[in-house]
Amino acid sequence: MAGKSVPEAPSSREKILDVAEALFARSGFSAVGMREVAGDVGLGKSSLFHHFASKDALYFQVLERVLGRIAERVMPLFAAKTTPTARLDALSDALVDTLAEHPTTARLLLRSLFEVHPVVGEGAPPEAEAGDKILFALIEAARDLIREGIACGEFRAVSPADATQTVIGTAVFHFASGEFGEAVTGGSLFSAEAVARRRDEQRAFLHHALVRDAAPAASV
Fold it and tell me: pTM of the prediction?
């Protein structure tokens, strides 16, 4: 039809990142070879190395992209001119939605904590630096929000560091749990109904954990 735009096909680089993300999430860093990535993309192995110098480089750029997606969605929420409780609610909902929209993300992030190459820490390859910066910015923004909520009396006097760890774990583990999570919840983790239920459940849980004397608000 005249005038109707045609969606642009993903670039070879983006296609490689998509395939690598799925493979690393499913099998882990050590079990995935560059030949397998190239084969699934439909490229020769030499062509793959034209885009990424090594498997380490590919792995950490996959992680950078994943963390970047999360940051793009949630970082503006930290800066909103609303109460700490309202920002906590918006953050919780955005985390659920982002992880639900990309089913490989949570499992990849969980695997990255015990992979051969950690996401953060000494000894990580140079390619990990960009992802580290995103991750540290997200963590510090979450700590600052919790500190602000405590200071103004909206949040309980909790440890900001431990509370941040709880928020991360609550969001990531659920969507990374796969068949185990489906067995516990009795169905798909990624259906529209399940995601809406998880959004309400997580928000309510965080309210009970952090917010002083306030009933959890239902998601919009």
Answer: 0.85
